[in-house]
Amino acid sequence: MQINFTNVVDLPLLLGYGANSGIYLVARTPAAGKDPFFQTSTTRAVVFCALTTFASFANLSVSSHPGLASMGQLLTIGLALILCCDLIVLPALLADPSKRRGR
């Protein structure tokens, strides 16, 4: 994918969206108590919000305008990676290391 002006606009949007969803999940973690990470209402809300935004960005990628199509493709790929990081990497970073070793 080549870099053009519409893709330059996408990068701050992706950074903001990733930080926003990450902040929601990190702020909810201490309040969740003994509940697993994936069974909180905040995690479900972040996933459903990301899926609806993902569908909107995917609609942009089928546009006939090349700028909008590349913008939609980059946003769709970026949002998929952000969602994977929020659901896989973030819980691993928030896990208590003493519980992993069996102490």
Q: Quick gist of this model?
A:
The protein is built from four helices and no strands. The chain is an all-alpha fold and about 100 residues long.
Task: Based on the model shown, name its key terms.
single chain; 103 residues; mainly alpha; 4 helices; elongated
Describe this protein's structure.
With 103 residues, this protein is mostly helical. It is 80% helix and 0% strand. It has 4 helices and no strands. Helix 2 (41-61) runs antiparallel to helix 3. The chain is elongated, with a radius of gyration of 16 Å.
Q: Total helix count?
A: 4
Query: How far is the N terminus from the C terminus?
Result: 47 Å
Report the principal-axis shape.
elongated
How many β-strand stretches? Answer: 0
How do the helices and strands line up, and which of them pair or pack?
Blueprint: H1 5-32, H2 41-61, H3 66-94, H4 97-100
